[in-house]
Amino acid sequence: MQNERPIYFTDPDKLVDFIIDKVGKNIVLGMCLGLGKPNHFANAIYKKAKEDPDLRLKILTALSLEPPTWSSDLERRFLEPLVQRVWKGYVNLDYVTAVRKNELPPNVEVGEFFYKAGGYLDNEHMQQNYTSTNYTHAARDVRDNGMNVGGQLVAKKVLNGKPMFSMSSNSDTALDAFREIERQRKEGKRVAAIGQVNNNLPFMYGDAVIEPHFFDAVLEAPDMHFTLFGAPREPVTVIDYVIGMHASGLIKDGGTLQIGIGSLGDAIAYGMRIRHLQNEVYNNVMRDLGVHDNFGDIINRVGGTAIFEKGIYGSTEMLVDAFLHLYKAGIMKRKVYDNVPLQKLLNAGKIQVKQKVTPAIIEMLAEQAAIHPRLTAKDFTFLQEYGILKAELKYENGEIVNGKDRFVADLRDANSKDRLFQSCLGKQLKDGFWMHAGFFLGPPDFYDVLNNMSEEERMQINMTSVLNTNQLYGNNPYSSEELKMLQRKDARFINAGLMVMLSGAVVSDGLEDLRVISGVGGQYNFVAQGHALEDARGVLMIRSTRAKGKDVSSNVVFNYGHTTVPRHLRDIIVTEYGIADLRGKSDKNVICALLNVTDSRFQDGLLQRAKQAKKIPATYQIPDRFRNNYPERLEKALATYKEKSLFPVFPFGTAFTDEEIVLGKSLREFKEKAAESKMAVLSGLVGQLVAPVPEAAKKYLERMQLDKPGNRQERMMQKIVILALKQAGQI
């Protein structure tokens, strides 16, 4: 029976025994991407599988989070204090450790549909058990792979005197997967839905809020509220910033925004903040970068460079940390209603979010047949839900009850209408949502901000399914096609890619030897939305080059043996050298546009390949104004602003100390040089062996616990650190 659920457990091992009794010893465990995994439960069921070879366990999930590990004593000295500081209290996932060490028992299989970028490139088990799927198909594909147990980390709160749960960080696929479990339960199948309560998880609202009976069992104990996984912010380079500045000019005031995690997402948000808060500086930077001269046409057509007077609304698969900084800056202020009639009035400018309730609102709703002339119970509930009618009113037997006054609410009757308007109207319309999102993940202070928000503020964020955020089609339980099209005005769906071919096809998730770097995630979904919505655009950001030591390669390529976004869905490509508007263009014009935003070291070679393939006229020449696409030009353009404390390495803060930032960069560059030429490194070390320790190096050596080396190995590591700092120009 529904009211018999859930059963509460404080011991994860006993919960696993309950699961085995309920579904048997062939368990297919589905868990959401990222943060929302019930780690204690996952570890207990994995431990049981290790102990019992008759139990077959298949784990289906994505992005299993893990703190960084080290492979040398030098790496340990750098990482261990950081891990203890940032991830103290986090419960590691034992199956991830086993995967890393190639120690999974034969009766356990782990399959994921999205990896941390490059995390499993050389892992045989994970490469073989990867499932390529669109984010919106993930719950379906987990179901088709036999999921009979679902596990989810949840927040818990008493609402209106009743305990409720929130899917919080991961409504994305969990809502749909657990509804599938419910459907199978009604069919008499042996399934189980499991929740684990974590009080550190922000209680998020919207579609994320669920009844306790959603679960068969819940794990809750005082010692299981583990630290949420913190994903440190990445450093933002000059290249990232310039890409972000270009992309920020494509965002239209009053529009809709999707961005992702990482340095490029932070760069866009930083550009938007400067555009809004320091508009003169913003436009000066855009001029110094040549954006106005070279790409002013598309920016004027698609976006703008003025402040965000109307504000932006977010419809994104991921609520990233950067969005909260945009919210704080007063940019994320366009709000929407999850109601078609009200959203129509909002779009037409006839009402405003949280405006004073007037009789005209009810009359306009009646005119568009959103309510009946004689209010029904459904009409009454709708009007009360959005604050149009007072909360204390009741609806009984076709009448509105207002204290001792009762009357039939018939808008065709003057007396009834007058009574309704005089004494029953609420004070103001309900607040709207400035954000619809599927999941979140970020640094620890990001969770702090969410937890410290007022309830009213958190209620303005609707955590929902990716069936809602990532696609238009299908009238799912969360929204209709019509509503999503009304809400997502002037949408800019911005994501990152790895390479772009001269055809306009994009590579984002894999290599041509079939190895998986990450996964398609929601990228295809948003590219498709960019084409489906009349006033939307899909933007893919790509760094024009990549480097391995001294070897630099172009990320604009003639062709490649893997595709994430096909050429027929090409739209806008942004590199640090500009904006290529590809939608609806011929192959010749696509190639011309991409060559304009290619690093100049590779333009001639690519142009020659295109001419050989007869895809561009033999006489074509790249315009002179695009022939200075070198990183030095960009560095020079931003140098003056960096001197004024603009464009910092970590625009929104960092968990790293100043010493760790310098050490991390220096040691990484040293490692790359060592891989390129061991002899060059050895010759540098020889020179350090007899040299005294520089005064400027002492604070870095103290951080690495190498200021007082006690043996030959430590003395050698000390010299390596000093050499790395010198080669990086830090001392």
| Helix count from the secondary structure assignment | 28
By DSSP, the count of extended strands is: 25
- CATH architectural type of the largest domain: 3-Layer(aba) Sandwich
Can you tell me the residue ranges where pLDDT is under 50 for at least 5 consecutive residues?
Answer: none
The secondary-structure class comes to alpha/beta
Quick overview:
By secondary structure, the protein is of the alpha/beta class. Helices cover 39% and strands 15% of the residues.
Verbal overview:
This protein is α/β, with parallel strands linked by helices and 731 residues long. The chain folds into 4 domains: 2-224, Glutaconate Coenzyme A-transferase (3-Layer(aba) Sandwich), CATH 3.40.1080.10; 238-334 and 435-595, Acetyl-CoA hydrolase/transferase C-terminal domain (Glutaconate Coenzyme A-transferase, 3-Layer(aba) Sandwich), CATH 3.40.1080; 341-423, no CATH class; 658-727, no CATH class. Helix content is 39%, strand content 15%. The strands form 5 sheets. Strands 1, 2, 3, 4, 5, 6, 7, 8 and 9 form a 9-stranded mixed β-sheet that branches. Strands 16-15-11-10-17-20-24-25 form an 8-stranded mixed β-sheet, with helices on both faces. Strands 12-13-14 form a 3-stranded antiparallel β-sheet, with helices on one face. Strand 24 and strand 25 form a beta hairpin. Helix 1 crosses helix 2, helix 6 (138-144) runs parallel beside helix 7 and helix 9 packs across helix 10. The longest helix is centred in the C-terminal third of the chain and has 19 residues, at 658-676. The model has no long low-confidence stretch (mean pLDDT 96).
